[in-house]
Amino acid sequence: MKKTLLLLLTILILLVGCSANDKSEQQTESADGQALFEHQSQPLNCDKFLSADQAQKLCAQAAQKQEKAAGDSRILVVPHHALAADLTAEALYKADAANKELFIIIGPNHANQGAKISVTDQSYQSGKTVLPPDKQALSALTENELAACDSSRFADEHSIGLPVALLAQLNPEARIVPIICRHSLTREEGAEIFSALAPLLNDKTLIIASIDFSHHLAAAQAAGHNEQIAKLILDGKSERIAKLDSSYIDAPGIMAAVCDYAAKDELSPAILRKATAADYLGDGYTGEVTSYLTIIYQ
Description:
The structure is a single chain. The chain is α/β, with parallel strands linked by helices. It folds into two domains: 1-35; 46-297, Protocatechuate 4,5-dioxygenase, Chain B (3-Layer(aba) Sandwich). Helix content is 41%, strand content 17%. An eight-stranded mixed β-sheet has the order 7-4-8-3-9-2-11-10, with helices on both faces. A hairpin with a 2-residue loop joins β5 (124-126) and β6 (129-131). α2 (52-65) crosses α3 and α3 crosses α5 (158-170). The chain is globular.
């Protein structure tokens, strides 16, 4: 009887020890940056920005209207307003997003709270499609504290949620890297993002700069500002872009860093579409508008 009790006690100790070791291993993984990206949180919901049905319809329309670009598309600049979601869908289709694998999606932190650069390790869901974050890219951004992993900043952030909703329709196997930046982001800080991700920026990766342009202007003035900043972008004038205010662009640091990265990688920009909210709201609309540009770099 004593031998049986002793045997049972030994087995119990071994089982508890195994459980403790498992927990210890999980904690070690957290310390080296891996388990950070393996939690079981619910995916972030894209439907609040653009429903899966709307996204599917816009992507189908884009496929009918657009031809895919002939060259290798490496960067897109697209709007994140639902009003202009057709422009984003068309640009993604043209850049052949369906045949890319990794998507670096960088946009403004509209709440302008938290770290200057934030990322999330949560997946995004649109309808039944779930797009996971890329662990390697997130580790590259967080391991040297360039970016803070703060998922609370993303739940209501449409600069990421809207393009991801469309991407989920075009490429349900995509891996994503959601990044948001406060308005004070500088060109140099933006350049650090691309430097950290450099080993991953290849022909299977698409950088998506989710940016809206002029804000709080009448339609004619917004269109004028759109023309001015479009020229600056085509000419690669990143220093001037970085100093612009919201009457021209909502993420000057991101756009300036994109221009610098494109120049370094010898990528050429082309304007795909120009628009303002007035183009959607009708001739009778006389209030303030936002302006939009879609740009492709090859």
